[in-house]
Amino acid sequence: MAGSGTAQLRTGDALLRVEHLVVNFHAGPRQRVHAVSDVSFDVLEGETLGLVGESGCGKSTTGRAVMQLPRPTSGSVRFAGQELTALKRGALRETRPQMQMIFQDPISSLNPRRRVVDIVAEPLAIWGRGGGAERDAKVREVFDAVGLDVDAAGDRRPYQFSGGQCQRISIARSLMLDPRLLICDEPVSALDVSVQAQILNLLADTKKRYGLTMIFIAHDLAVVKNVSDRVAVMYLGKLCEVAGADDLYEHPTHPYTNALLASIPEPDPQVRPSTNGAGLAGEIPSPVSPPSGCRFRTRCPRAQDRCAAEEPQMRQMRPDHFVACHFPVESPVSFGATRSTASNQ
Amino acid sequence: MRARRDRQTTGYPAAPETSGPLLEVADLTTHFRTGRGMVRAVDGVSFSLDRGRTLGVVGESGSGKTVLSRSIMGLLPRTNVVRSGEVRFAGRELTALTEAELRDIWGVEIGMVFQDPMTSLNPVMRVGRQITESLRHHLGVDRAEGRRRAVALLDSVGIPEPEQRLGDFPHQLSGGMRQRVTIAVALACGPRLLMADEPTTALDVTVQAQILDLLARQQRERYMAMVLVTHDLGVVAGRTDEIAVMYAGKIVEKAPTRTLFSDMKMPYTEALLKSIPKLADPSHTTLSVIPGRPPDLVNLPTGCRFYPRCPYAQQRCRDEEPPLQEATTPGHVYRCWFPVGTPEGRDALDRNRREGRLDAGAPVAPAGA
User: Fold this and answer.
1) pLDDT on residue B357
2) Pick from B212, B237, B272: which is nearest to A269 by CB?
3) CB contact set of B145 (below 8 Å; sequence gap of 6+)
């Protein structure tokens, strides 16, 4: 894509509707990092949106801009009918309990000197909700929801837990205020595969139990597919492709999505890894001076003159499948890993 | 201290050609003395590796895979380490060498690539000098020749404009470029063995594919052996000849790569593979998990170290440690009383499922992650 446009937005009530989101950072005199440039998406109530891309594509910045951390440079973020970008500080604070975040490094996102039961209970104290007994009951409930025993674990401190358990505690804390939207920023990328599976299953259960809406940010496409209903692929501050999770992986249309899929090492020796650069050559360009037109064109095997001159707009390729590319891949997977046989798993 | 070796100014150091495997590790044990007791990080590991071949070492964090690679190299703390066993490299016993002698092996005979390219490069030394340092020290090449070779090396690891990059500091390069530089440093003296410890874990998936391709190409061209240590079965699946799966300091299964995936015997290998989300699965597939977590290396369970988490576990697994036994395919060994895909294994699994137990009556591990 790296293109703009709003064709992917759905009509009707979305819990979260982000339009023309722009986030720039200052980077010295007359220099600006274009972290997020004109990104639009929506998330329906109860849906999980996956945001995928390489480091530096702006996926974390997008997640934080939804929370107004920091406030975006321009664009609109409507959450439950409220325009967050227009709210004053106090009013914004009132909406924050409804949106919670989980971060990548579970150990450093917990205060090392406090007992985990206090860490988890703190949101209630801050908001002055409930009495002592009510708070205890709620703490017990969320510990139970994340599979920890409050009596055995509550008095310990974060360093006494493994990374996976700390991530469970972070999830418990995020549930305390009954949020509607949970933004998970690479919640499993610091964890071992076996633990990763536990946390992914836990997130799916939690979502069902509490009726949550989720934005799931990650660089691992297989993980994103597992948790998401809809997936948005980002590249250098722009959206490339938005589609239903299964549809995106079955019919990847943007050359960048294809390249990402081709790069994934499959745990199957029958799938020969692509060699001699059939994946994706080069590196992501600097967001200080992004390429003109389509931002992916410098690494795109299908790039033409038009890609430099004109920025592609989001358009519908199939039902609920949108792509911002002048020359989308019509036939599935034209380059990348050659699959000698289907996965035998 | 750092006496310059008088070596021929051209060509790579000639080492005695021996028949037999390039690297032979026999019953290697590496324990650490700590305040809590003895941490048995590597506990009796044996394998051998021929020239030009690749061995993948796979395991969770804390399985001892990194300590294994460091123990082979002799890169261990000076105190509170108990190491025993043998490490024979090209006919020489590495465990008997002094650090000064090892310095003639590190970099020249055995190269190493680490996980984090930022911390393994010197932040205040220009890239060019980090490459030429070992060339000049070990091979005694002169400044001009060193520079010429450094440019050729940077070019061969896919760094654009190598002449300009020689003058850069590591912080001026991206993560992927830095890892290419560490690979160039590791390859500079033409080692016969490359130890790569999680070389792509800190990198993006697209860059990971590039780096793995690069390692495979260099390895082919140089007929170099490689030990690829990783937690990701996906990384080793298409790029190794043989895989050793480690759990709690031991190799629990080792097999030629295709055999390991098609005919795994060890329940741990099966569980590890099943817990990876696969692209072929539809979204919202519930992943099968390995309950609990790896054992504490100070207080290891008796019997099989995996039994508290194993769906196949029986009373025997608790009482007796399974020895490494051979499967039908040559080179395939595993440690299990009730292997996957055998009648005994199926019976054990069925029995546990019927009784709804996780293991042979042992306290079920709390649902801690």
Assistant:
1) 63
2) B237
3) B9, B135
Q: What mean pLDDT value characterizes chain B?
A: 88
What distance in Å separates the CA atoms of residue A335 and residue A311, rounded to the nearest whole number?
24
Q: How many Å apart are CA B93 and CA B245, to the nearest integer?
A: 25
Contact residues for B194 (Cβ-Cβ < 8 A; gap 6+): B110, B111, B112, B113, B186, B187, B215, B219, B224, B225, B226, B227
B169 touches chain A (CB under 8 A): no
Choosing among A166, A193, A198, A229, which should be mutated to test the B contact, i.e. which has the most B CBs within 10 A?
A193
What is the dihedral sign for C-alpha B267, B268, B274, B275?
A: positive
**A164–B293 CB contact, under 8 Å:** yes
B76 CB contacts (<8 Å, ≥6 apart)?
B30, B67, B70, B83
The answer to whether B289 and B310 are in contact (CB under 8 A) is no
The domain A16-80+180-339 having CATH identifier 3.40.50.300: the answer here is yes
Domain regions of chain A by residue span: 16-80+180-339
Residue A321, Ramachandran bin (φ over 0: left; ψ between -120 and 50: alpha; else beta):
beta
Residue in B176, B235, B237 nearest the CB of A268: B237
* Beta strands per DSSP E along A189-342: 213-218, 230-235, 238-244, 271-272, 315-318, 321-323, 338-339
Give the domain ranges of chain B: 23-246, 272-355
The DSSP H or E segment spanning A74 is strand A74-79
**Is residue B56 within 8 Å of residue B243, measured between CB atoms?**
yes
Looking at CA atoms only, how far is residue B234 from chain A in angstroms?
Answer: 4
Question: pLDDT category, B332, cuts 50, 70, 90?
Answer: very high
Owner of token pair 């964890």: A191
Q: E strands of B104-162, at which residues?
A: 110-113
- Residues counted in chain B: 369
- Compute the distance between CA of residue A109 and CA of residue A55 in angstroms, rounded to an integer: 20
Across chain B, the runs of DSSP E, i.e. the strands, are 23-34, 37-49, 54-58, 81-89, 92-93, 110-113, 193-197, 225-230, 242-247, 250-256, 325-326, 333-334
The answer to whether the CB atoms of A273 and B284 lie below 8 A apart is: no
B152 contact A CB<8A: no
CB of A245 closer than 8 Å to CB of A50: yes
Quote the CA–CA distance of B44 and B54 in Å, as a whole number: 21
- Its pTM stands at 0.85
pLDDT(B141) > 60 = yes
Largest CA distance in chain A: 67
**H helix or E strand, kind and range, residue A22:** strand A16-26
Residues A54-103: pLDDT tens digits? 888 999 999 999 999 889 999 999 999 999 999 999 999 999 999 999 99
Write the residue in B212, B283, B369 that is nearest to A164 by C-beta. B369
Minimal C-alpha gap between B210 and chain A (Å): 7
How would you list the strands of the sheet with A99-102, edge to edge? A99-102, A181-185, A213-218, A48-52, A230-235, A238-244, A321-323, A315-318
CATH topology classification for B23-246: Rossmann fold (3.40.50)
Residue pair A210/A178 in contact by the 8 Å Cβ criterion: yes
Task: Dump pLDDT digits (tens) for A189-242.
Answer: 888 888 899 999 999 999 999 999 999 999 889 999 999 999 999 999 999 999
Q: What are phi and psi of A132, to 5 degrees?
A: -55, -50
| Chain B residues closer than 8 Å to A263 by CB | 205-206, 208-209
